[in-house]
C-alpha cells in the first residue's frame, strides 16, 4: 500500500518534470527556427517572387511581430494542434508528420523487435558460453555493430543483396505494381498489419521482402548494444548469491538462466532499449534516405535541406516529445518490473 | 601556517588517484591488452596519416580539392589504386587528406564540449541547491532531444559547413559532460580534503579549480575516448546528409554520399571512404571499451 | 586475455566481408574495345530489368509508371509557377502550344482552333474549339477563357507574362479577343509554360471564395488526364479523362499514369533498372552513358531552354572594370565545364539566349579558354599577377554547379585570382544577392530558363537590363546602350521580327564584349525511353512537362 502510494507519487513527479521539459523544448525549437538565416517569407513563395508578395506573406506568417509575441503565438498554435504550414508542400506540418509517421513507426518497430530479440538471445547465449568461441563471435559482432555507419552498411547490403545476389528488392516500401494487382487497404497505415488484417498475403510477402534490408540496417546498432548489456548483466547476476544458492539447491540450469537470471537482467536492458530507441530514431533518417523509405526521415532531411523551418520545428518537437514519452514509459515500467529501483 | 600544512597533509592522505598516475595506468592497460593495443596502433596509424597527409597522398593537391578534368572517373589502376572521382581527383589522396578533418574535428568537438560541460557540472555538483537545479534542468532539456536530431536542426539553422556542424555537435554534446562531472563533483564535495578546504574559508572558485576539476580529469578522459567514436560517426552522418563539410573539401561522409550515384558500377567510390570511417570508429570503440572495463567513469553516477 | 586475439581475428573477417560485399562482381580492368559489350552483358546479369519486350502489365488498366523529381508546391493552376508543371501540363491545356523548333508548324492548336492578329499587333482573336468539356463537366466558353486569363493576370504565379494585356472581350460563345496595350507576341504568351492554363469557371469561383480550394488535390482542366489521387512527396496517380476532346480511340494510350516522386536522381535510376518504373525522368547525368547503346532503349539528346550563366558583380572592385571581366571570361575552361559540369551534354553558350529560342543568334561571339590572353588583359587592367579574391556562390542543390564551380576556382588560381566557393540553398543565394549588392557575392552562378519562349523579353531583359531593385539582373549592370537596344527590339518583335532580331544581336554582342556576366553552356537534355513506349515527342519549350497523352504501347 505504502509502496503503491510512493509509486504513484514518483510517477506523478516524473510526469510533471516531463511537462516542464516539453515546455523548454518548445523554446529551443522556436529559437533554432528563428536563427535560420533566410527570409522565410521568400522561401514560402518560391523563386521569382515579387517584393510585394514577400511583404504580404511576411504579414501572413506573422514574421513582422516581435520575437516574444511570435513565441506566444507559436505556443498557442502548437497547443491547438496547429504546428504551422510546411513551406515546401504548403500543407499543415502536423498532417505531414502524421501521414509519414506510420512508415517510420513500422520500420522502427520491426528493427527494434529484431534488435531486442537477437540482442537478448545472443547476449544470454554469449554469457552462458563465456570465453568460448561463440561468446567471442558475439562480442566481435557487437563491436562491429556499434561502429558501422548506418548509411554505409545500407549501401553495402544493397550492393550485396540486390546487385550481386539479386534476391531482395533494392528500395521502397512496396513494389509499385502491387497497388494495381493487390492493393493494400490502409487501415492503420502500418503495411504489415494492414496486409494481415485484410488477408492480403501477396502484399504481405512483398512488404516483408522490402522490410528486410532497411530493418536489418537499422537494427545493427541497437542489437549490438542490447546484446552487450544483456551479456554484462547476465554475468553480473549469475555471480550473485541467490543464483548460486539456486544452483546449490540443484534447480534446473535452464530455469536459473531463463527465469531467475534473465528476470533480473531485464531492467538494465530496458534502460538500454530506451536509450537505443533515440539512436534508432535518428538512425532511421539515414536508413530511409538510403532505402528510399517514405517516412519521417526523408521528410526531415528534405526539410533540412530546403530550410523548411516550420517543418524542422515540427519534426524536432515531435521527435523530442516522442523521446521524452519513451523515457517516461521506460521509467514507469521499470518501477513495476524492478521494485529495487529507488523511488527517491 | 600550521593550519595550511595540516591541510596539505589531509589532502595527501585523502587524494583520489591523480591524473598522471591514471595516464600511466591507462598505458599499462593498453600494453597488456592485445585488442586495446591493436586499436591504439590503428589510431596512431590514422594520426600518422593525418599529420603527414600531404606527404603521403600521391596527389595532395587533388586530395585537397583541385580538379583534374582529364582523369575524370577512372577505374582503379596502379596510378590511382581506388580510381578517381567525377572531377578527376585521385580517391586515395582524397581519403588520405580527409583523415585530417575526420580526426581533428571530433577531437575539437569533444574537447570543447568538455570545456563547456565540465565546469558547469563541477559548479552544480559542488554548490548544489538552486544553482545545481537550474544547471541540471537545462542539461535535461538538451538531453531530451535525440542527439543527432538536435545537431541536425542546429547545423541547418547555422548554415551548412564543417565549422557549423562542429558547433552543432558541441551544443548538443556538452550536457553529457555536465552530468558526468556533476556526479563526480557531488561525491568529491563530501570528501574530507574538500570539506577541510571549505572550512578554512578557501574560496569556492579556488576549490573547484584546484580540487574538484583536476580530480574529474581522468574519468572525463576515459569517457571522451569512448565518445570519440560516436562523434566521428555523427560528423560522417551530417556530412552524408549534406549538412557538414561542403565540397570541394574532402570528407569521408560526403564521399560516401557522392559515390552513391555510382554505387552499382564504381562501387569503390563510396565503399572505401565508408570503410575508413568504420575502421576509425571501430578502433576508438575498442579502445574505449577496454578503458571502460578498467575505469568505468559511469561508476560515479 | 587470450580471447581478445580471437576477437581481433573475427573482426578482421567481418571487416573483410563487409568491404568485399562491393567487390564481388566487378571487372575493373577491361580493355577499351570490349567495354561496351562487356558492360551491357554485366548489366543484364546485374539488373533484374524485365525483358523490354514485355508490356509492363498484361491485364487490367494500362499503366505507365514514372519516377520524377517534380514536387507539388501548389495545385492551384493560376498560382502554379514551379515543378508541378509536370502534372499541370497533363491536366490543363492552354489555348495553343508551341512546337519544338524542328516542327513544320510553329504552334499546335489546343483549345483555340485558330487565331489571328491585327496588323499593328495589338488585337488578337482566338476561335475556340467547340464541345470541349472540363473535368468537372463545365463547357469551354469564351467566358471561361476570359476568367482564367484575368485570374492569371491578377494573381498568377507568372502574372507578369500578361503585362501587355489591356482587356479581354468576349465576342461570342467561342470567340475571344485580347486587346494589348503594346505589340507583343501573344501567341508565345498564350503558349506559356506557366500562367496560361484555361480553368473551369466553377473551380475558379470556388477558389475565389477559398484560396486553398485546389490544395486538397482538386484540378479542373480540359486535359487528357485527371488527378485520381496523390500523396505528398510520394506519388501522383493520373487517370484518363474519357470525354477528352482529342479522343482515345486510334492508339493504345495509357489509362493511368503513376508518378512516383523521387527526389534523388540515383534512386530514379535504380528504380528504372530494377524494373519498378517504365520511365525515369531524371537519371544522374554521370550515368547516362550506360544507356547510350543499351538494347531496347532509345537515347535522346535534345536542345533545351536551360543555360548556365555566371554574373560578375559589376559594382565592386576590380570587377567594375570591363577589362578584368573580360580577362576572367577568357580564364573559364568552357570545354572542361561542359565535360565535367554537363557531363558532355551541352554546348558553349552564345550570350544568355539558349540555342533554338528567339532571339538566339549565331553571330554573337564567344570567349575561348585562353589563359595567356587573360593574363595580358589583367596586366593591362593593372593586375599583372591577379592578386585579388572573389567569392562565388552557387545553388547547393544543383549538381552541375557543384561539379563546375571547382573548375572555375582552379582555373582562376592559374592567373592568380583566388576564388572562395560558397554553396548555399538557391533561395538563400538569391536573397543574399538581392539584399545588398555592394556587399554581395562577386560571382553568382545561375541556371536560367525563360518563362515562355521569348528569351528577348525574359533572359536578356531579366538578367541584364538595368533596374533599380535587383531581381535577376545579378550583375547589377547598368548600360544605357544595351537597355535601349533591347527595349526597341522587344517593341518590334511582332511587327518587324527582322529588325528586332538585328537589334537583339547587336545588344548581345555588346553584352558579350562588356562581359557583365559569363555564359557557360546551353544544356542538352538527355533522357532514355524504353522502346515499348511509343509516340513520345520531346518539346524543349516545356522543360518541366512530359506530355503523356501521345504515348502508347503496342
Features of the shown structure:
heterotrimer, B: 301 residues, mainly alpha, elongated, disordered N terminus, C: 554 residues, alpha+beta, D-Maltodextrin-Binding Protein, domain 2, Dipeptide-binding Protein, domain 3, 2 domains, 6-stranded mixed β-sheet, 16 helices, 20% strand
Number of strands of chain A: 0
Compute the gyration radius of chain A: what is it? 24 Å
CATH H-level superfamily of the largest domain in chain A: MetI-like
Number of helices, where a helix is a run of at least 4 consecutive DSSP H or I residues of chain A? 14
Explained architecture:
The complex is a heterotrimer of chains A (about 350), B (about 300) and C (about 550). With about 350 residues, chain A is mainly α. Chain A has two domains: about 80 residues, no CATH class; about 240 residues, MetI-like fold, CATH 1.10.3720.10. Chain A has 14 helices and no strands. The two termini of chain A are about 15 Å apart. The model of chain A has no long low-confidence stretch (mean pLDDT about 80). Chain B has about 300 residues and is mostly helical. Chain B has a single domain, classed as MetI-like fold. Chain B is built from 13 helices and no strands. The longest helix of chain B has about 40 residues. Chain C has about 550 residues and is an alpha+beta fold. Chain C folds into two domains: about 280 residues, D-Maltodextrin-Binding Protein, domain 2 (3-Layer(aba) Sandwich); about 220 residues, Dipeptide-binding Protein, Domain 3 (Dipeptide-binding Protein, domain 3, Roll). Chain C contains 16 helices and 17 strands. In chain C, strands 13-17-12-16-14-15 form a six-stranded mixed sheet, sandwiched between helices. In chain C, strand 8 and strand 9 form a beta hairpin. At the B-C interface, helix 3 and helix 13 of B face helix 1, helix 7, helix 10, helix 12 and strand 15 of C.
Write the topology of this structure.
The complex is a heterotrimer of chains A (344), B (301) and C (554).
Chain A: H1 2-35, H2 40-45, H3 51-60, H4 67-80, H5 93-128, H6 133-147, H7 150-164, H8 178-181, H9 191-197, H10 201-238, H11 241-248, H12 253-291, H13 296-306, H14 309-337
Helix pairs in contact in A: 1-14, 5-6, 5-10, 5-12, 6-10, 7-10, 7-12, 9-10, 10-12, 12-13, 12-14, 13-14
Chain B: H1 2-13, H2 19-32, H3 34-51, H4 53-56, H5 60-64, H6 91-127, H7 129-143, H8 147-158, H9 162-188, H10 192-199, H11 204-241, H12 252-259, H13 268-295
Helix pairs in contact in B: 1-10, 2-3, 3-6, 3-13, 6-7, 6-9, 6-11, 6-13, 7-9, 8-9, 9-11, 10-11, 11-12, 11-13, 12-13
Chain C: H1 2-23, H2 35-46, E1 63-68, H3 85-91, E2 96-98, E3 107-109, E4 112-117, E5 123-128, H4 142-155, E6 165-172, E7 175-180, H5 186-190, H6 201-209, E8 225-231, E9 235-240, E10 256-261, H7 265-273, E11 279-280, H8 289-292, E12 297-312, H9 322-330, H10 334-341, E13 346-348, H11 371-380, E14 389-395, H12 399-414, E15 418-424, H13 426-435, E16 443-448, H14 456-464, H15 480-492, H16 497-514, E17 517-530
Parallel strand pairs in C: 1-10, 1-11, 14-15, 14-16
Antiparallel strand pairs in C: 2-3, 4-5, 5-7, 6-7, 8-9, 9-10, 12-16, 12-17, 13-17
Helix pairs in contact in C: 9-11, 10-12, 14-15, 15-16
